[in-house]
Amino acid sequence: MAKVKFLVGSTYGNAQQMADEACEELNQLGHQCEVFNHPCIDDVIGEDTDVLIICSATIGEGDIPDNLLPLYSQLSDQSPLLPHVKYAVIALGDSSYDNFADGGRQMNELMHELQAVSVQEMLLIDACETPDPEEAVLEWIRLLHPKL
Ligand SMILES: Cc1cc2nc3c(=O)[nH]c(=O)nc-3n(C[C@H](O)[C@H](O)[C@H](O)COP(=O)(O)O)c2cc1C
């Protein structure tokens, strides 16, 4: 059983919904999960953090949504090292835009720089190409579960 924190970046609610459903699934699989809609650095650097799952859409021109941006800035500025933390990323976007899914990709890069340990390949949810995003997320979560 792992303590899992979902860190959400969402403007219109899609990423929020995916995080809520993923959280419920992992809770049912026996983990202890919580969703943070306005995460800050204190939610991340505490001793009680085993696993971070970043669930972020992209807004503007490849930007991180406003509710996740403060965390990104705090982590970039303070650069706390997180080698004891496992992480994985769900990145939502739309491939008809340039900078496809860059919000999630930027978070992924930052976690890598902070030496957090990636436990599963990033899940890309493309509004143009992923017919059933919920099923894609749940499948990905079930694969992730034994690695936590
Ligand atoms: C104004 C606007 C700008 C967007 N810019 C991008 C972008 O640069 N890259 C991308 O991959 N998706 C982009 N998207 C698509 C969103 O990331 C996608 O629709 C996502 O599912 C929205 O999630 P949310 O409801 O959690 O905000 C944009 C959507 C809107 C409405």
TrEMBL record:
* Key words of the record: Flavoprotein, FMN
What InterPro entries does this protein's entry cite?
Flavodoxin/NO_synth, Flavoprotein-like_sf
Q: Name one Pfam family in it.
A: Flavodoxin_1
> What GO molecular function terms would the record report?
flavin adenine dinucleotide binding; FMN binding; oxidoreductase activity
Give the Flavodoxin-like domain ranges: 4-145
Q: Which domain of life is it from?
A: Bacteria
Needed cofactors: FMN
Q: Which residues form the signal peptide?
A: none
Which GO CC annotations does the UniProt entry carry? cytosol
For this protein, the record's PANTHER family field holds: NADPH OXIDOREDUCTASE A (PTHR19384:SF128), NITRIC OXIDE SYNTHASE-RELATED (PTHR19384)
Output the NCBIfam families linked to this UniProt entry: PRK08105.1
Put simply, this protein is called Flavodoxin
Q: Which organism is it from?
A: Neptunomonas qingdaonensis
